[in-house]
Amino acid sequence: MPPAANAEHWQQALRHSLKNVGELLRFCQVPADALDVDVAPEFPLRVTRVWAARIRKGDVRDPLLRQVLPLADERLAVAGFVADPTGDCQALAASGLLHKYRGRCLVVSTAACAIHCRYCFRRHFPYGEQRLDSGKLAAYLRQRPEVTEVILSGGDPLMLTDDRLRALTAVLPDAVHTLRIHTRMPVVLPARVDAGLLEWLAGLPQQVVLVLHVNHARELDGETARALQALRQAGAHLLNQAVLLRGVNDSAARLRSLMEALFSQGVLPYYLHLLDPVAGAAHFQVPEAEALALHRQLRAVLPGYLVPRLAREYPGEAAKRVLAG
Questions:
Q1: Whether 18 contacts 52, CB under 8 Å
Q2: CB distance 152 to 123 below 8 Å
Q3: Which residues constitute the domain of residue 165?
Q4: Each residue of 195-204: pLDDT tens digit?
Q5: Per-residue CA distances from 91 to 36, 49, 84, 176, 178 (Å)
Q6: Residue 61 falls within a domain, yes or no?
Q7: Model confidence over 165-179: pLDDT tens digits?
Q8: Is residue 249 part of a domain?
Q9: Backbone angles phi, psi at 200, to 5 degrees
Q10: In this structure, are strands 309-312 and 321-324 parallel, antiparallel, or unpaired?
Q11: Under a CB-based contact definition with an 8 Å cutoff, are residues 258 and 217 in contact?
Q12: Is there a contact between 210 and 176 (Cβ–Cβ < 8 Å)?
């Protein structure tokens, strides 16, 4: 049975998210002096309680905790780590619209996320200057019939209400036959996958590809399984792109567990990204040679359809660069 329509439920859960370091450490039963944390981070902390509940209590090295806990390392200036590592700002075609690749464009639909990942490549993005205008979006796309795929990104597009999502997708011209949605919401707040969202998805004329972002197998549980099953039943094709992160998933065993856990919930691995060199995230970096070795180990123990492409984005290139397939 599909989830009931209950926007208030997921929005109320959002309001009760963990929003400061002390609160997160108490929730996870981690001593405040166990790690060199940044108690007043420039990039604010935000974590849903349902996702934080998957963090092992008292474990200062927990790979989920590491993804969201601000450390003092974030304030270190490291050569090559910059504010706009993927060239988003130079690819702005209009307010809130990125056009990097010929046949597809990306809509920065919102600045909001339910969880603030410390390695986020858009942690410095000037969201305040990017006000999306659906009329201008429609006009831009009508003038470019070669654009057949629109990507909803952000922030997280599923932070928008169902009505706002309907209004946004209603202006897409007939030439757009694929809608891709990049989101963490079904994993970090499974309650977002309610009847209203599923009705919108099922009614879309485009093919829907929903790309999740899961980095560790313990991010998936019974609640995510039910949400993902409902999304598949609504007609969405589910893929995952992970980021290779030091201390989170930088071992063949952890990566294998992640890919198998994804497949058990109906999600195919798509990309394993090398870290985008965004300022504040250098402590997550895994060198390319080590990444290639891990990928070779994955190919030796997993069937080909569970081995993600190892990739990195370089600003100005016509596509992501695949380092190993």
A1: yes
A2: no
A3: 78-324
A4: 999 999 999 9
A5: 36, 35, 11, 20, 21
A6: no
A7: 999 999 999 999 999
A8: yes
A9: -60, -45
A10: antiparallel
A11: yes
A12: no
* SS3 state at 239: strand
- Count other C-beta atoms under 10 Å from residue 200's C-beta: 16
pLDDT digits (tens, 9 = 90+) for 197-252: 999 999 999 999 999 999 999 999 999 999 999 999 999 999 999 999 999 999 99
Q: Which helix (H) or strand (E) holds 194?
A: none
* Ramachandran assignment for 31, one of left (phi > 0), alpha (psi -120 to 50 degrees), beta (any other): beta
Length of the chain: 325
Nearest to 276 by CA among 242, 325, 318, 250: 242
Q: What is the mean pLDDT of the chain?
A: 95
Tell me, what CATH number does 280's domain have? 3.20.20.70
Which tokens belong to 275?
């870290």
Is 10 domain-assigned?
Answer: no
CA distance 266 to 233: 11
| Residue at 195 is within a domain | yes
Q: How many domains does the chain have?
A: 1
| Cα 84 to Cα 125: distance, rounded to the nearest angstrom | 7
